[in-house]
Amino acid sequence: MKVQSLPGFRDFDPERMALRNHILSTWREVALAWGFEEYDGPPLEPLELYIEKSGPEIVEQLFNFTDKGGREVALRPEMTPTIVRMLGGRIKGMPLPVRWFSMPQLFRYEKQQRGRLREHFQLNMDIVGETSVDADADLVCAAFEVLRRLGLTSDDVVARISDRRILRQLLLESGVPENALHVAYNVIDKVERDPRATCIQRLVAIGVDEKSADRILRFAEMSLDDIRREFPESGELRSIAEELDRYFEAITNLGFGEWVRFDMKIVRGLAYYTGIVFEIFDRKGELRAICGGGRYDGLFASLTDSDVPALGFGFGDVVLGELLRDRSLVPKVSSGPDTVVIPVDESVRPAALKLVAALRRQGRRVVFPYGKSGVGKTLKKAASQGIAQAWILGPDELARNEVKVRELSSGEETSRDLSGVLGETSGG
Ligand code: HAM
């Protein structure tokens, strides 16, 4: 019987693993450069952690079951509730803001499509205990820096920025009842995918008249200046717009002004966001979102005994990997061996093994033939595996305290002093 892997789950052969490591090591480098500390949590959590606060979209996608102890559990679909649970109990007394990052594998029972699988890795960077928009600006710039270090530019990607507070205010003013706000958010979230008539219909269904429904869809296209012009009397909207000005200015000063644009069509699918939100997309608009996040100032208070402001993002490896492949930005790195040590006959095998051990301690990636094997055959096999160097040890060389080193690409050979090589690491 041939057992296939489950739909939406990936096998990582060495080539795919190299790309995954390339992405994850860049994530870690940038998060550390931004002064974040790494954490992790359990991959399996109590179901209730997600039920109330993540919103219906994620709840429908949960991999959940009853465990053998009768507990309702779920594989983590996102990291935010976990960090809130972990920090909620201990944030009092910690120096603020807390900056934590993690790179969990997450699980969502999604309809499989380009850029969306049932498992993915996600860089999470979160800042807890800070209200200033400088934090929002610093955070999104970390995502840009990841993209920059991987070889992408602002010609390839753009962050679309919005603010839940502005949207909320505009929707309430247009007659959306408070308890139906989530439906209106969802309409705006899907405004680029759904036909206009469907959007209007859904707004009318929650009690908005047709004229206001039309106005709501127009809001989605507005710039910050349009909002200031259209609502000159609203002090609240003006002060949020000023905050956003400061946010964009900080991003420009941090060197990423070209990477952002204001766009009210960005809502974010998750229910807990309360302020500035963003999603990063490829400029051509061919792929799903690469990264998304924002402020979730109320989530600590609703899940824990602490009430602290927070913000963060999730940056997935799937769409990013596709973008890097599309732009030929996947480096050709091999994790395979670079050196083979070949004993010419069995009499020198003990010395050859000592040489293997010494070369490995010097940082080389070394293999040797496990059984009897001819020199010519071993060299041929090594070349076909992309190995760069062969260290060939025969009885004559051993008697002279030497070893032959052959470059497999050119065939060039030199002799090295054997006890010198063995001695380089023997002190350690
Ligand atoms: P999210 O928008 O659900 O946010 O996911 C963030 C990113 O994870 C997406 O932009 C995408 O790159 C990737 N992603 C999500 N689902 C999938 C999937 N099924 N397959 C492949 N990639 C996927 C969150 O998860 C929030 N918890 C982020 C956050 C952290 N907000 C504050 N802190």
Account of the protein in words:
- The protein is of the alpha+beta class.
- Helices cover 40% and strands 19% of the residues.
- The chain has 17 helices and 17 strands.
- It has helices spanning 14-33, 48-51, 56-60, 80-88, 133-149, 164-173, 181-189, 196-205, 210-219, 224-230, 235-253, 299-303, 318-326, 349-361, 375-384, 395-399, 418-426, and strands spanning 37-38, 44-46, 64-66, 72-75, 98-102, 105-107, 119-128, 157-163, 260-262, 276-282, 291-295, 310-316, 339-343, 366-367, 389-393, 402-407, 413-417.
- The strands form three sheets. Strands 1, 5, 6, 7, 8, 9, 10, 11 and 12 form a nine-stranded mixed β-sheet that branches. It has a five-stranded mixed β-sheet with strand order 14-13-15-16-17, sandwiched between helices. Strands 2-4-3 form a three-stranded antiparallel β-sheet.
- A hairpin with a 5-residue loop joins strand 16 (402-407) and strand 17 (413-417).
- Helix 5 (133-149) runs parallel beside helix 11.
- The longest helix has 20 residues, at 14-33.
Relative helix content: 25-40%
Strand content: 15-25%
Distance between the termini: 51 Å
Query: What ligands does this structure carry?
Result: histidyl-adenosine monophosphate
Task: Tell me the overall shape.
Answer: elongated
Main beta sheet = 9 strands, mixed
- Count every beta strand, where a strand is a DSSP E run of 2 or more residues: 17
The Cα radius of gyration reads 28 Å
By DSSP (H or I, 4+ residues per run), the number of helices equals 17
Average pLDDT confidence is 94
Which regions are unreliable across 5 or more consecutive residues at pLDDT < 50? none
Structural class: alpha+beta
Which oligomerization state do the chains in this entry correspond to? single chain
